[in-house]
Design brief:
By secondary structure, the protein is mainly β. 12% of the residues lie in helices and 33% in strands.
Length: 337
């Protein structure tokens, strides 16, 4: 009879998840990263984080997370009533194929047609079950986190495959190694006038902390907000009225909420100030309410998004920065005269 093996799309258990959560981290990885089965066997892909399963057709790339909606942004004004620079730019939203759910469904994969789970937006989505009928090696991806991938080795029935106990041991070892990496990257230090949005390690391990979490600079200092070089995440560095985590009705809270909608607000996804020129001068009245946004940043070489943005602190005060995508991430910059 055909056997079924399990691959976790994210951390493999609540216990492991709690260990990572205590350190404000995660591992954008499949557990195990490599799975061997016999032709005709099934793999149950169990989602445990915000990940997708993308098994592309042979020779086809994984899907992009964001895509133009076909609409051009217009009438986008800041709190002072002035038009934002990104009017005329494409409106962006989640790639439509990712909004169709494959969770709870059973697919057969031969390499001829993509198998896609879509985004896990429903509560407690059921596993995606995939039967692999042809021998071969197949690579699958997460469309949310570029670089997150796994491999299925489909062997003829004459070959041995690891037992369930051996697979479980592999998963436990992978998780233990990832936790060690997280503890190490949580000690990240950066140079002066730099704030790093998170930290990344091998095999998709991510820390959801700003480095440093608190800094002090003088008026006139230009600070670079940058992504970790090897990150599989996307982040923003954003300051303005409200705490997006605790006050969803605030200015920042409303922008952050659009990352859960099919279409994302222009002021959430684009930099608040046109890139390519002199860094914006941040004061408590920039854009009428002290708003500045790096825009969505990542380090994926196939992405048009930048990996960093700069801002000059032109007014004394205390500025709190959040990631609009992960609102629990917070940094404070104290600006003195």
């Amino acid at each position: 009879m055909a056997a079924t093996k399990t691959v976790f799309m994210g951390l493999p258990s609540k216990k492991v998840g709690n260990q990572f959560q205590k350190l404000n981290g995660d591992d954008n990885a499949f557990f195990p990263r490599s799975t061997a089965i016999h032709a005709g066997d099934k793999v149950s892909f169990v989602v445990t984080g915000f990940h997708t399963l993308d098994l592309p057709a042979k020779g086809v790339s994984p899907l992009a997370l964001l895509a133009p909606t076909g609409t051009t942004l217009a009438g986008q004004n800041d709190a002072a009533g002035q038009p934002f620079w990104f009017n005329g730019q494409p409106e962006l939203g989640f790639n439509p194929p990712l909004l169709a759910s494959g969770f709870g469904k059973h697919f057969t994969y031969t390499g001829a047609k993509r198998v896609e789970s879509g985004l896990p937006v429903a509560n407690n989505p059921k596993p995606v079950l995939v039967t692999f009928k042809k021998a071969g090696t197949y690579t699958y991806f997460c469309d949310v986190h570029a670089g997150m991938k796994g491999t299925i080795h489909v062997l003829a029935k004459s070959h041995k495959v690891p037992s369930a106990a051996a697979d479980a041991k592999s998963v436990a070892t992978q998780a233990a190694n990832a936790l060690k990496i997280l503890k190490s990257i949580n000690q990240t230090t950066v140079g002066s006038s730099v704030v790093q949005i998170g930290a990344s390690g091998k095999n998709g391990v991510e820390s959801f902390n700003f480095f440093p979490a608190t800094s002090t600079v003088k008026v006139g200092t230009t600070v670079t907000f940058r992504m970790p070089v090897t990150s599989t995440e996307v982040h923003t560095a954003t300051t303005g009225p409200g705490n997006p985590l605790t006050d969803p009705n605030s200015y920042l809270g409303q922008l952050a909420a659009t990352f859960t909608l099919p279409v994302i607000a222009g002021a959430a996804v684009y930099p608040s100030d046109q890139p390519g020129g002199t860094p914006a001068s941040l004061t408590p009245t920039l854009h009428g309410n002290g708003f500045w946004n790096s825009g969505v940043l990542d380090t994926n070489i196939n992405s048009p998004l930048p990996g960093a943005n700069q801002v000059t602190f032109a007014g004394a005060g205390t500025y709190t920065f959040y990631c609009l995508i992960h609102p629990f991430m917070k940094a404070t910059v104290n600006v003195t005269s």
